[in-house]
Amino acid sequence: MKRAFVYTGGEIFAEYIQEKPQDGDIVIAADSGYNNAKNMGVKVNILIGDFDSLAGELPKDVDEILQVPAKKDLTDTQLAVEKAVRMGATQITIVGSTSGRLDHALSMLAILEGLHERHIRGIILNGQNRVSYVKNTNHILLSGQGYKYFSLIATDIAKGVSIEGAKYPLKNKTLDRKLQFAVSNEIEGNAALITVKKGGILVIESRDI
């Protein structure tokens, strides 16, 4: 498994972020995501962006800087993720804010579905939320990670959805993007088991801050 970490801009809650790169991991910052990485004590290998939100001179402690035009089709985060994919990453953790501008937040969530289609495991987290994409499989959520709540958000229609080991169990239900009802659940015991027989869902773990 080749892991990559992509740091983006926006508000993060660094004290709650347990996932950090190890030796040999790819570390990429998208524009002002460099500041989030630096504040967490993370060494950035590659910096990508149009640098409209990274104030001052470009940093000199990165191995590679890729400056792109401000007028472009992909966001800086998308470009950073694509760079990680080209470098062979099979697991990509995106560290950044899912708050702020809704268009950017939704774009980030859509990245997870695209990575799944390419058989790459993706996670988005900012300390308050951690998001994964699950399709046609089982997924285990462990307690003791600091996230009090979890929600299942269907990206289209998900069938055969079951939840075991939670405050609000489900058995073989259908979740529809237009009517979300599997929101704000809680793990009971050591773990919760989520099953999706057909379709895709976003699994969102959250804590109150």
Walkthrough of the structure:
The chain has 209 residues and is α/β, with parallel strands linked by helices. The strands form two sheets. The protein has a nine-stranded mixed beta sheet. Strands 8-12-10-11 form a four-stranded antiparallel beta sheet, with no helix packed on it. The two termini are 33 Å apart.
Order of helices and strands: EEHEEHEHEEEEEEEE
Query: What share of residues are in beta strands?
Result: 35-45%
Q: How many beta-strand elements? A: 13
Q: Specify the number of helices.
A: 3
Based on Cα principal axes, name the global outline.
elongated
Short description, anyone?
The chain has 209 residues and is an alpha/beta fold.
List keywords for this structure.
209 residues; four-stranded antiparallel sheet; alpha/beta; nine-stranded mixed sheet; elongated
Secondary structure topology:
Blueprint (H helix, E strand, L loop, with lengths): L2 E5 L18 E5 L2 H7 L6 E4 L14 E4 L8 H11 L4 E5 L6 H16 L3 E5 L3 E7 L2 E5 L6 E6 L2 E8 L5 E7 L14 E8 L1 E7 L3
Parallel strand pairs: 1-2, 1-5, 2-3, 3-4, 5-6
Antiparallel strand pairs: 6-7, 7-13, 8-12, 9-13, 10-11, 10-12
